[in-house]
From TrEMBL:
EC number: 2.3.1.180
Predominant subcellular localization, coarse grouping: cytoplasm
A GO MF label: 3-oxoacyl-[acyl-carrier-protein] synthase activity
Protein name, entry field: Beta-ketoacyl-[acyl-carrier-protein] synthase III
UniProt remark on domains: The last Arg residue of the ACP-binding site is essential for the weak association between ACP/AcpP and FabH.
Subunit record text: Homodimer.
Highest rank taxon of the organism: Bacteria
Any one Pfam family match given in the protein's UniProt record, by short name: ACP_syn_III_C
Every Beta-ketoacyl-[acyl-carrier-protein] synthase III C-terminal domain range: 238-327
Gene: fabH
InterPro entries given in the database record: ACP_syn_III_C, ACP_syn_III_N, FabH, Thiolase-like
């Protein structure tokens, strides 16, 4: 099926907002450095919220907006690199919270590219007439060393999602093309969440001794990766869709750094109107960044039915992916 109708979109953010200035009490940094190098002014940080509670809030809003019964949902995918538990995964918890008894539910982890990988899965899984919830939800604050200025200033918590239907009788919403690529040999440039090896037979090794729980990132390498591979991925996806960049209303890019978005825009000759940004408010929320941005674009009527859109995610893996749709 090429039918891909986004019937609702929603976001959920923790109530606590942390301004750049507050971070200067934890590490040697400044509001100016963070604003100029990244475009970030604040981020939302989970205090009582969890990856699951944020995802559930998004799911409830999606059902409310679309007026669908929870039992009409066939598939729930949560993209996250910061789940509350390794098992049960986040999506089954969402299924239970909303009572979507008919849905199968599972998580995927493609770091910051998770949402756009989830779009491809939804597109390929849904049979005509079926409906999915696709949610990106993160509490990256639990993976941050809050004294490491090279990473802590970048990340934030939040969730966003879409209710997607493959109902051929709906007049709008089509899948037009996509492109995905993985660069596993560069994976060590961005790591987080190493699991401890703690069984009675475990033997100390260099890797095990070096407890890499918090984000470790070679920022320059990731920056170079993104500014090279994101334009390539968009070009490939547009080629598959047989479209030009000028045909696209907006490029919903992963919000990692305003400079990366500007560089991609320059390489592809895009206008600033084609490059929505909200990183100033939320920082990098990994798999949640594109659906949060999209939900705001819909709420502010910056996107209309029939508009062609490109979603692009990139990050840990290293991974990149782009999906072209008609809204
Ligand atoms: N505050 C103040 N100074 C800082 C800070 C900070 N928070 N962080 C670094 N600096 C200093 C550095 O120590 C360095 O000082 P020096 O010149 O005296 O050595 C100077 O600022 C410049 O540092 P660079 O690392 O060269 O700064 P750069 O311009 O490369 O910006 C950044 C760093 C923002 C991390 C950038 O490289 C970037 O955005 N990279 C991409 C990161 C990214 O997208 N990651 C997410 C991927 S998504 C995922 O999958 C989770």
């Amino acid at each position: 099926t090429t039918n891909f109708s986004i019937l609702a979109s929603a976001k959920a953010l923790p109530t606590t907002q942390v301004m750049n200035q507050e971070l200067t009490q934890l590490m040697p940094t400044s509001d100016n450095w963070i604003k100029q190098r990244t475009g970030i002014r604040s981020r939302h940080i989970a205090t009582t919220e969890t990856t699951t509670s944020l995802a559930v809030s998004v799911a409830q809003q999606l059902l409310h907006q679309s007026q669908l019964a929870a039992t009409a949902i066939d598939l729930i995918i949560v993209a996250t690199m910061s789940p509350d538990y390794l098992t049960p995964a986040t999506a089954p918890q969402v299924q239970a919270a909303i009572g979507a008894e008919q849905a199968i539910a599972f998580d995927i982890n493609v770091a910051c590219a998770g949402f756009v990988y989830g779009m491809q899965l939804v597109h390929q899984y849904l049979q005509p007439g079926q409906t999915a919830l696709l949610i990106g939800s993160e509490t990256l604050s639990r993976l941050v060393d809050w004294h490491d200025r090279s990473t802590a200033v970048l990340f934030g918590d939040g969730a966003g999602g879409m209710l997607i239907s493959a109902n051929p009788s709906l007049m709008t919403g089509r899948w037009l093309g996509s492109h995905y690529a993985t660069f596993g040999t560069d994976g060590h440039y961005l790591t987080a969440g190493q699991q401890p090896r703690v069984n009675p037979w475990s033997v100390a090794t260099d890797e095990a001794d070096d407890n890499r729980w918090a984000f470790q990132m070679n920022g320059r390498r990731v920056y170079d990766f993104a500014t090279k591979q994101v334009p390539r991925s968009i070009e490939q996806a547009l080629m598959q869709a047989d479209l030009k960049s000028s045909d696209i209303k907006a490029f919903v890019l992963h919000q990692a750094n305003a400079r990366i978005v500007a560089s991609v825009g320059q390489k592809l000759n895009l206008t600033s109107a084609q490059l929505p940004l909200n990183i100033a408010q939320y920082g990098n929320t990994a798999a949640a960044s594109e659906p949060i941005l999209f939900a705001e674009m819909v709420a502010q009527q910056q996107v209309q039915r029939g508009d062609k859109l490109v979603f692009t995610g990139f990050g840990g893996g290293l991974s990149v992916g782009s999906a072209v749709i008609e809204y």
